[in-house]
Structures are given as structure tokens and as C-alpha cells.
Amino acid sequence: MSSISVEDKVKIASSFLLSSPPGEVNDVFNDVRILVNDDEALQDGILQTLEQYNTEQHITVRLPDTDYDVIVCKHGKVGEDRFLDPRSKKTFKFDHMRLTASDLEDYAVESPLESLREAVEKEALEYVNDHYPNGVCTVHTTENNEIVIAIVDNKYNPNNFWNGRWLSSWIYDTQSHSLKGSTKVNVHYYEEGNVQLNADKTFEAQLTEISDEKQQAVALLKQITTFDRAYQSTMNESYNELAENTFKGLRRTLPMTRNKMDWSKIMNYKIGNELAQK
């Protein structure tokens, strides 16, 4: 690595950070910090990378004096380093390195979609609370007359060497009444190995215009629920197929001796003697 410039090392480190598994970005950062061996250059060079990672992965933060988490995503950015919590109508400064929120300020919402956003938010929060054990949901509006629903559910279990994340983003165009969504699932298992699952799926639907905002929100979440259930079922079927057929097909049909194991004579085999001694 001595022949590589510090700038190139930082670029390589940035690519590693963007590929960090759920809940492990700090571990990756500590590793690349040793490789770069220049804390000042590393910190200056990866701030933009950390912001990209945090917003793409729907990193959550708990604001001061609140009892819920907020998703940090690109749709909530209202300044160079400030993000909006639409529920409390406040903006906050977010530290992408330490993942902390500070400096809360009131925010005047001027969007004509605010009442619809609130109706969608109510339905979305109920859905997430019912279906996601650790789910967080934040609903935004955009300048393009869109309602954006961001959802994330993280499960970190480093003591058992695995972490996982389910995240989805839904965009409802209030003019064309089209709904577009994308769901990404990332699971990392790293006990005596390194196995990752990366799956993603997109969805599109056309909704019927409903004048009542509450009913429009109900119809919107019904579409999301239908997709999530179908996608979850498909994934379950796929992994059952892997467990029952694909992985079994990789196993030897016979031991290396080409003879079936006679379990009634297990003590005659070397492995049986070794087990008996233990």
C-alpha cells in the first residue's frame, strides 16, 4: 500500500464503507483507518461517503425530547447538514460520523400535501408497528407533488455473528396516482466465514383517485401490504427450496469409502471411538 497515494487510499476506503453490512460501518471504518494510516485525510475524505451511506441505508436517529426514531434519508434533507422530522415539524443537525442529532429548530411546512401526508403517516405508522418488530417509518413530501414513505427495520445480533436490514422506499405521485416502490434486504452472517444475502425488488401500481384523504391513505398502504406479503412469501419459498433441495444436492450421497454408514456398528469406526472417549 506504500506506493498508493493517500487520496487513492481514501477512495478505496470510501468504496469499502459504502459496501458495509448492516450495523458494521464502524467496524469497517476502524479497519480502513489502519489501511489509510492518516486520520485527518480519512476524516476529510469520507464525510460525503458517510452521508451517502447513511441516507441510502435509512439510518435512524432519536431526536432530543422525543420517543420515536426518525429516518435520515435524502428526501428529508433541507440544508447542507440539516434534515427534517415531518412529525414534529422540526429540523435537526445530523452528525454523519457520530450518528447524533442536535440543534433542533421549528420548521414551517408550506406543502399543499401536508394534510394528505399526515393521513398517510398515520396509516403507515400503524402498519409498521404491526408488521415490523423494530420498524421505523418517516413520511415526506417532495416539490414534485409526491408522498415518500421510508421504512427500515434493523436486527443486529453481533454476539451470534449476524446482522440484517430490511428497507423500503415508496413514492406516490399525487398527480398521476402511480405508486413505485423498492425493497432491499441485506443479511450478513460471519461466524467462521463470510456469507451475505443481498436481495432487492421493485414494485409499481396504479391507484384510483379518491377524494377522501383518509381513504386514499388506506388504499395506498393496502398496496404496500399486498406487495410486502407477496415478497416475503416468495423469499420464504426460495430459501426453503435451498434448504430442502439445493444444499442437499451439494452433499455427498456416500462417504468417501463409497459405503453407507452402518450406524449399528458405529463403535467400530474411528469417529465412534473418538466420540466415546469424549
UniProtKB/TrEMBL annotation:
GO process terms (BP): actin cytoskeleton organization; barbed-end actin filament capping
One GO MF term attached to the UniProt entry: actin filament binding
Keywords in alphabetical order: Actin capping, Actin-binding
InterPro entries tied to this protein: CapZ_alpha (IPR002189), CapZ_alpha/beta (IPR037282), CapZ_alpha/beta_2 (IPR042276), CapZ_alpha_1 (IPR042489), F-actin_cap_asu_CS (IPR017865)
Keyword Transmembrane helix: no
Keyword Transit peptide carried by entry: no
GO cellular component, one term: cortical cytoskeleton
A Pfam short name: F-actin_cap_A
Subunit note: Heterodimer of an alpha and a beta subunit.
Free-text function comment from the UniProt entry: F-actin-capping proteins bind in a Ca(2+)-independent manner to the fast growing ends of actin filaments (barbed end) thereby blocking the exchange of subunits at these ends. Unlike other capping proteins (such as gelsolin and severin), these proteins do not sever actin filaments.
UniProt similarity note: Belongs to the F-actin-capping protein alpha subunit family.
PANTHER family assigned to the protein according to its UniProt record, in alphabetical order: F-ACTIN-CAPPING PROTEIN SUBUNIT ALPHA
Name this polypeptide is given: F-actin-capping protein subunit alpha
Provenance organism: Rhizopus azygosporus
